[in-house]
Amino acid sequence: MRTAQELAATVQTHVPMKPVWHQILLSVATGDHHGYAIRESVEARTQGSMRLWPATLYGALQRMSEAGLLEEHPATDDPRGKRIFRITPEGSAVLAAETKRLEALVALGRAAVAAGDSQ
What we know:
Strand order of the largest sheet: 1-3-2
Helix content: 55-70%
Strand content: 5-15%
CATH superfamily: Winged helix-like DNA-binding domain superfamily/Winged helix DNA-binding domain
Order of helices and strands: HHEHHEEH
Distance between the termini: 53 Å
Number of strands: 3
């Protein structure tokens, strides 16, 4: 179990986050998924504006696992050896912090647009 200080350091290291990593964490936040399911989830959520090609996807999954944001384990029901990815507590904390950061940016943008509209 990580201390609060270690968790805060992990969050600080990864926020702001690469958009691909953010989308991957959003995909696994609701449950465990294999790579192809993550890819499909990202494409659906972004209405096709973000496509994760295998090299990009599996490279990101590898780096995110090494960073402690994801856990990887073999699928128990797949003889082909698919890997399943699960978000870690660190990954959840980073996802929450990145989402909060993005919400603040959107709020600033909306305020700027509203101020421009009133002039």
